[in-house]
Amino acid sequence: MSTDTIRFEVDNGVATITLNRVATLNAFNDLMIQETIDAFKQAGRDDSVRAVILTGAGRGFSSGQDLAEFRDHKKDVSVSGHLRGGYHKLIQQMLKIEKPIIGAINGVAAGAGLGIALACDLRIAAQSAVFMLAFSKIGLIPDAGINWLLPRMIGYPRAYQMAITADKVKAQSALAWGMINEVVADEALAETAQSWGRRFASGPTLAFGLTKRAMLRAFEQDFETALEYEANIQEIAARSHDNVEGIAAFLEKRPPTFTGR
Ligand code: T3D
Which residues line ligand 1 (CB under 6 A)? Predict the structure, then answer.
């Protein structure tokens, strides 16, 4: 399926959402925000989809908010309202999907484009990709979840430095800082992301989804509450077909066949 601003493909249990406004390095206009939300909703609803990849077409992952549209709609809509009605809904949708989301960062990820990259559960970057908080160049503060996500990943000093310098951070530094999971050669990015996706899609995806829920919730909990919460979530995982299958396969010394149920 293709829309005006994205491509959506499903193969081997892996949904790939490709941001596709190449002329602007995949800047988010309102339509692309909405179509990306819809694509994540569809990936969440479809039981045959067990892992999701988000990537960009052309030489950018995303350059963030479309600044031409921003200038125009600022006259009619409040920025906070625009954030709440757009990026917040997209990020909430990504957090809600209990399936691993892999960001395949093929090029520059700037502004809200970086926020959306950070909202993926895992990130693989092409060697030539760069990460930047472009906001201060246009007199804004970071948004799209960055103030919450980035300091947790790389610590406050580096996050604040990225914010106020708006310097580009290379993929290797992003890896060393803990912002991404792996760097690969540019030409290997798409296949590496698909191979991660296929691996996760054949795993115990119910448990993967519950792990996402437990870990994200734990950020907000004290330790005692987190212990209690994970015990309750483990109760759900322990009742799954995949848990029965995993134990049987171990005892029978054969590979498990997980179905995500
Ligand atoms: O209302 C709200 O929700 C507020 C939310 C705000 C969230 C934000 O994301 S604010 C931050 C917005 N993003 C930026 O400020 C980044 C702007 N872009 C750049 O700084 C540079 O383009 C890059 C560093 C990302 C890449 O530089 P480079 O030299 O590789 O490419 P370029 O030549 O600058 O860009 C290529 C084309 O894309 C160019 O168009 P042209 O000249 O070929 O017709 C450029 O204008 C266009 N483009 C790049 N970024 C944007 C864009 N067009 C619209 N909006 C963009 N964000």
Answer: 24-25, 27, 63-68, 70, 79, 82-83, 86-87, 108, 110-112, 134-135, 137-138, 140, 143
